[in-house]
From TrEMBL:
Cleavable signal peptide: 1-26
DUF1595 domain mapped to chain residues: 388-447
Species the sequence originates in: Prosthecobacter debontii
The keyword Nucleotide-binding is annotated on this UniProt entry: no
Name the record gives this protein: Planctomycete cytochrome C
Domain DUF1588 per the UniProt entry, residue ranges: 641-737
Amino acid sequence: MRFPLLSGAFLSATCLSVTAWSSVSAELPAELSAFLDQHCLECHDADVTKGGLDLTALKFELNQRANFSQWQRVFERVRDGEMPPKKQTQPEKPELAKFIAGLGQPLLKADTDDIATVGRVRSRKLTRTEYEHTLHDLLGIDIPVKALLPEDRASHGFETVAEGQQLSHHQLARYLDVADLALSEAFKRALEGDVVFERHCTPADLAMFTRGNYRGPDLKEGRSLSWPITLQFFGRMKATEVPEDGWYRITLRDVQAVNPGPTGAVWGTLRSGICYSNAPMLYMIGLVEATSTPRDLVYEAWIQKDHMLELKPNDATLKRAATGANGGNVSFKGRDLAKDGFSGISNRGIDLQRIYPNGDNDLVKRSLFGETDLQKAGKGDQAIKALDRLVARFARRAFRRPVTAEQTAPYQEIGRKVLAEESSLAEGLKASYRAILCSPRFLTFVEAPGELDDHAIASRLSYALWVSMPDAELLKLADQGKLKQPEVLSAQVTRLLADAKSQRFIESFSDQWLRLKEIDFTSPDTRQFPTFDPVVQESMLQETRTYLSELIHQNLDVTHLVDSDFAFLNGRLARHYLGDLPPNKKAELKSPKTKNKDKEKKQAKIAQKDATGVEWDDLMTSPLKVGEGLQKVSLNPQSMRGGLLAQGALLKVTSDGTSTSPVLRGVFVNERILGTHIPPPPPGVPAIEPDIRGATSIRERLEKHRSNESCMSCHTLIDPPGFALESFDPVGGWRTRYGKGKGAEVNPSGATPDGAVFADFEAWKQVYRQRADQLARGFAQQFLTYATGAAMRFSDAAALDTVVTRSRADGHGLRSILQAAVQSPVFLHK
């Protein structure tokens, strides 16, 4: 039984009628009944039922999930001062304290009793991301399999939460298919060796095309050149088509910018795909920052069979070149786009090499066979003994804990049957391993109610911080029974976060917590935001993930979630945040190179300015280094770009591509950053539709909605951060007016639920910079929900208080919060 917060039940006003209450629920303690009679029943009885809540029909049966949830909501609304409404007569402080204690104690007992019986977390399975990483670490392979598995449904914001997970017969069949695919790859590599593939494509090779319309690069003076031509799939190169699925190292030779202008760089993308209209999907490999100085750029990516590379400038602010031909063709005959002043990216060829980033052939062999040589394993009884030994070894690693002979026997029997039929030890092992990979002991977390054993702690810790199975060191400590020792557990948290595998945690956690996985869910309106492009979007993702990684690894304090004096930017993203150069200055920026040094200096000065003529130092205190990609920069104290909430990725995923909503952004900030749960709206309440022309502000359209008393109580929480963020448009740009800058004026002012008034986003940040405890609690809630597979419960409050207190001693550093959270009973108990 779970106890989620009540959806749509709102206490609203003062009340009467103890007799009406008593006739329904005689079990309710008398002091609670008297409080509700005096302050609640007038608006929450059978006749009124404001917010859909009839307290006269609500039984005090706290062992029932629905009843517990409603009483928890009652407790929280009264405790937080939301009910009774401010305009009504308020209870005296002693009376209020008595009610809160009187209701809180039975709620706490009911919740702790339930946890003691069945645990906080129901049976949780591996998410498809965890399953993929586990297969990679278990088998030594590197093939992506996540996309072949059913999507995981998020609950309480996370795919890891057991409450939202499902595992049907259809889904299990998909897991079987993936297990077959992974094992086939592993055994093929172990028995046949790794495939070797290398190809060098000259500029002339890259310009060749054998069928369809030509959309490849320009070829001049031994260089391959790509220009800002917007035709779909322009920049595709048939010569780079790969013969089979695999990881490849891609080296672009002597990459150089053509007409980079004062910014010193031309930004583009390297992607892979079929590159024909029958298969339009393109897969991002990386950003290309071409500079005046030729240099090799190296990328590693998974490329599917028969997919080719597409390389082109993808900066929407560049002057666009015509195709030079009719229909879907591109022609450079009789044209010299460099002399015409267009910016481009050139190279002297591309090298492709098949690689195995997760491990070589020897690692795969050890993963499957240990030190056993299958060729020398023999046949008959000798082969059976080898099979039994290897299956037990594999099961122990796959199940992430010691296994008994009784537990391994069924898997050994499967292998023995195959061995008897086919006389192949390899096939027998593969059959046994397949069954193990579809076992509940592999697919789910084996945890008993109460305190976790050392092996369960090892798994929970590893999946939290590595998104995969425990390594040998964690398992050894678990075998020795040492993981429950605080100093040992703390040292392991430090070790795991210092390892390169912790990047998996950064990506998985941020994808869910900050909803970065939704970055592609909307496409910005190109009429409103013509300069938004794939380079900007990819840079936004890199910015947020790198920023979060910095906060954790440097143990920076939690207030950096709302504000900071540094950011991670590249040249293209910085220009996007300042506003792209105005048309008259863009023309100068894209003009051909000149020998006139005075003109070059003038252009360089122009490049330091945004559309209003403000110099770059309005954003940062020192210039970016051209060619170094994403860089840590010190922000100007007047800049609004400090902290997570001002980053483009978060601003985009909380918008719809055309307009913004303070409600959507307000709910996001409350739940993901401030730790405040926002219940769904009552039934029948319509959404607030923005005026996409910008003639009226969303604030004006919200006023009528907020006048509804049931709506007002929640919007008091929701709207303040949403209003503060209205200064940012749907693609993260700064604005003072709606529409195309000619609509209604943006009003980012408001007041926090406790009455702190703010005039704009900067003032809102100043309020919450002083509330480190609240931010630490909110972050701990999010991490523990993600790491344990269950949302926070009523009885978890004391443990969260301890996490906040312990991390306060280290200045509420994010790594300190993680350390304290891992040491808490919430993490160490089922």
